[in-house]
Design brief:
Elements (H helix, E strand, L loop, with lengths): L20 E4 L4 E4 L2 E2 H7 L2 H10 L5 H13 L5 H9 L6 H15 L11 H22 L13 H10 L5 H14 L6 H10 L5 H12 L7 H12 L5 H10 L17 H17 L3 H17 L5 H12 L6 H22 L26
Antiparallel strand pairs: 1-2, 2-3
Helix pairs in contact: 1-8, 2-16, 3-6, 4-5, 4-6, 5-6, 5-10, 6-7, 6-16, 7-8, 8-13, 8-15, 8-16, 9-10, 9-16, 10-16, 11-15, 12-14, 13-15
The chain binds carboxymethyl coenzyme *A.
Amino acid sequence: MTAVPVQRGLEDVVALESKICFIDGKQGRLIYEGYDIRELAERSTFEEVAYLLWYGRLPTEAQLEELTERLRQLRAVPEGVIETLHDLPTGTTPMDALRTAVSALASFEPEEGRPGATSIGGAQRLVAVLPAIISEFDRRRRGRSALPERPDLSHAANVLYLLTGREGSEMDVRAMDVALILHADHELNASTFAARVTASTLSDLYSAITSAIGALKGPLHGGANERVMELLRAIQTVDRVEPVVQEKLARHERIMGFGHRVYKVEDPRATILRTWSRRIGEEKGDLRWYDLLQKLCEVVHREKGLYPNVDLFSGSVYSLLGIPDDLFTPLFAVSRVSGWTAHVLEEYADLRLIRPTARYTGPTDLPYVPLDRRA
Ligand code: CMC
């Protein structure tokens, strides 16, 4: 019997067809529904991009207004979910809280998350409510009361307000909008795949998004940006970049924020966020993180030939916007939930149970030993 080769980590395996997102790993291009991410980051808003991912086309003015209004109406967290968040033990991480809250949301709003090609209401609800869930949890753990709703704010402005407790400058809001656009989708990354696997069993939208949040949490995926900030805080000064990187590499440790399964050149999202890291640093008169990151890029590329990915520069931007480090990955989810839900809807529309096989490497003919005779 010839053994079928095993593609560890499903590397280079084309598992399904999708119209949502295209990555050109050699050229360093990222396309959402036909549009280059660079143009979307320059000219659009997160609401437009969410519409694009869900409906496959950019909205007209009227459609955008309708969606923006709908998202505003769907922001409130149900009382039952707030109580669930408050019951979590001290020390629960924000990602664990977010995963639990989304799972609980299914019990409080079952009609929104039913499987089927028309669950767009559930997608909108999740995009609208995630920032408020994170804010509720974060403020409560700091002994602060929930913030009053601000229906006058755009999605990005509202995210910034909910996570920092204050309205940002125009530039802060634009930086947040760009970060949300850049993180909105990324083809079959681990969390999107997890969402699609769950949806492919005809499970509901909220279960699929709960799976995705669990996958995003890991440091090899969404958790990397928080680790980048940890590293920067440990390094402190530009002259320490070189020895710290050398030490880490000598211990065969990974440098977070570098490398990518698909990109063989610089991640285009990193290129855009690099600019924003400098811009926001200049606006705040604090280029400390930007300078460290630039040096880090130089050393890691020289030593390992690796390029930065999206997670390298995002933390420095968020930090300067006043967002706590352990909310970086939840913030990734706040954006990516637009892409996750678009993929789940696409899965429902052309459903095929995702169920690969494994090559068995264990024995097959062991004699059964009764319990009382086992050593
Ligand atoms: N630091 C040091 N060495 C690295 C790194 C890194 N960040 N990334 C890859 N390598 C080395 C790795 O050790 C291996 O070397 P060798 O062949 O000598 O053992 C080689 O490069 C290939 O690595 P790999 O793990 O086979 O490559 P992959 O395609 O599975 O890795 C990755 C992709 C993102 C898991 C990896 O680059 C990594 O661990 N990066 C750090 C974590 C990170 O920044 N994650 C965010 C990814 S982008 C956003 C997202 O998906 O959420």
